[in-house]
Amino acid sequence: MWVLCIGALVIICITHWVYRWKNPRCNGKLPPGSMGFPLLGETLQFFSPNTSSDIPPFIKKRMKRYGPIFKTNLVGRPVVVSTDPDLNYFIFQQEGHLFQSWYPDTFTEIFGRQNVGSLHGFMYKYLKNMVLNLFGPESLKKMVPQIEQAATRRLQQWSNQNSVELKEATASMIFDLTAKKLISYDQNNSSENLRQNFVAFIQGLISFPLDIPGTAYHKCLQGRKRAMNMLKNLLQERRENTKKQQSDFFDFVLEELQKEGTILTEAIALDLMFVLLFASFETTSLAITLAVKFLSDHPLVLSQLREEHESIVKQRENPDSGLTWKEYKSMTFTFQFISETVRLANIVPGIFRRALRDIQFKDYTIPAGWAVMVCPPAVHLNPAKYEDPLAFNPSRWKGMESNGASKHFMAFGGGMRFCVGTDFTKVQMAVFLHCLVTKYRWDAIRGGNILRTPGLQFPNGFHVQIMENETRKDGKDI
Ligand code: HEM
């Protein structure tokens, strides 16, 4: 009898729990949508790999069924997904008021609980200023020659090889550059390979938080542990051998840490270093690889780009003098090309926030505590805004050159949390493209196909053969 009673009670509890899972409480009207299976939600469908350049099938299907705003459950969290430009705009504008930056636990465990994306208020502003100092225009102006040298040296090396895997090669180039700028790290003088620890990050970042050997999440956590140990040791070494003159970000951090009443802690500084190292090389190398792929597939765009860069060289007194900031700023078509590349790349497939209180938007209520996911691909591939949205057409940006975000362009986010690395990425892309198209030709050999899980990947890499242009004495290509 007792057993029957307990059995019935358990069944009632489970049924109630499943009912609540499917019908969450809300002081208003929730957006339409399905919360999926208990515990799993719709996580597996969301991560299911696809090879489309279009709006991810998971999103597209639900937009058709439910409209531009719908609910779901991902990695154990109820989420409202927004493909609505007005709601996206509202979310970005309300950062810190109605919404707050929030990322799934996998992110916080991997990037550190005190990473810049998880900090708010005063501490966040302080860190953001630090980063803007590091990657702002004044600093970037000084970096142009270093970026040009790095690109020239790498391209020279690659042109001596039969085949180069571009994603890996550009990732290594950018990592070396950023690591030098941040911590004066030089792979050639180190017994340990710092970058090795960041491999497999993209797969692990938004993944199921299962920390057991073999999972992408586990690999990421192990990589983080090793990288953080290395960074800690490097910072300690620097502390013991303080330089007279501040030369990199480490010196700056040490100086800040010594200031009386500073709000910076070593843990926060190390988390920031870790995020910057990762964010800088992984995203930009994907963008450069896709850019070169687009150029291979669109010879007319390539000749237009080449024309712009050759004309910059021709206008110089000395064709071998390095790129200047003024020349960089004059690359009108290149900026259109970069905007079009990142529009279609959709490197960041979802931007996450958390509702700080019940929020009313149009007919719907977003309950306090729920996550919201802004979906940039749905905005960037909207035919109402971008004619023939899947076509690669840099000229669609003519006359629309802007450095910021808009309701219809959010590759680098929007509002207060707009990506602090945007200009750094653009300089790196533009300078690399300048060196590539003025001095080299290339043939695509193999790979180049994309996979989204939903983050962008090149599962087989993109293998190219790079050849130096043979030039005649009058400077024209043969
Ligand atoms: C193609 C290249 C890049 C893309 C597509 C990209 C995209 C984004 C996006 C969409 C956000 C907004 C996230 C949010 O609102 O929650 C963001 C933020 C951020 N990005 Fe980038 N990014 C790129 C390059 C970089 C680089 C090179 C750096 C490093 C210097 C960087 C560092 C950051 C940081 C630290 C944040 C957090 C800012 C904050 O919370 O205020 N990004 N990025």
UniProtKB/TrEMBL annotation:
Heme binds at C419. GO terms for molecular function: heme binding; iron ion binding; monooxygenase activity; oxidoreductase activity, acting on paired donors, with incorporation or reduction of molecular oxygen. It is found in: Membrane. GO terms for biological process: brassinosteroid biosynthetic process; brassinosteroid homeostasis; sterol metabolic process. It is a single-pass membrane protein. Its main location: membrane. Its cofactor is heme. Pfam families: p450. GO terms for cellular component: membrane. InterPro entries: Cyt_P450, Cyt_P450_CS, Cyt_P450_E_grp-I, Cyt_P450_sf. It comes from the Eukaryota. Keywords: Heme, Iron, Membrane, Metal-binding, Monooxygenase, Oxidoreductase, Transmembrane, Transmembrane helix. Belongs to the cytochrome P450 family. This is Cytochrome P450 87A3-like. It comes from Ziziphus jujuba var. spinosa.
